[in-house]
Specification:
With about 220 residues, the chain is an alpha/beta fold. Helices cover about 30% and strands about 20% of the residues. The longest helix has 19 residues, at about 40-60.
Length: about 220
Amino acid sequence: MSHPSLTTFDLPEGRSPRALILMLHGGKQSGLTPVDGRSASWRRSHAMARAIVPRAHAADVAVWLLRYRVRGWNAHLADGPSPVPDARWALEQASALDVPVVLLGHSMGARTSVHVADDPRVRGVVALAPWFEPGDPVELLRGTALRAAHGRTDKITSARRTRAFCRRAEPVAASVRFTDMGRVGHYMLRRVEQWNDYAAATSLELLDPEREPGRHA
């Protein structure tokens, strides 16, 4: 089986990052196919990474993009490969930087993010068109900020479930905010600049020590 890997957009030589945005791409409910450079989910997040890197680097924030071993969540398989240990591995690699981390996840990547949000390095989760299920834990978000954005015409994942997850997270998360992205679908192909702007601005907001994130319904 293949190994997880990282595409890193580090600051120019001589500059040290004060924080890290770790991006987690989408996937499928089930699938054992290795993720490679042809994966649409990985390529979508890679394009977003390239779009937000200039703003991140201007704020002295590095950007890393994780590539999972396989495409699926695979909850139906006993001991099946999952993106969760891959994300734990990536956070362990980030420990060498010794900086706070925001997890920026799309779809399955957002679901993965909340499953590893208890890592002490994680300051916040930014969930783009997330795939949340009613049984997904909110306790792992204790003391961590959650930001979620969803389009109203998403036919792949549910904005209604995202709102419900946010409501469940409110008692434990440091702060919660849901953003309605309007009449856009799942793959962030419509209004791509709006998605990129949300991803960059929200991630950097959560990494700004001068800001105290507010709690919203």
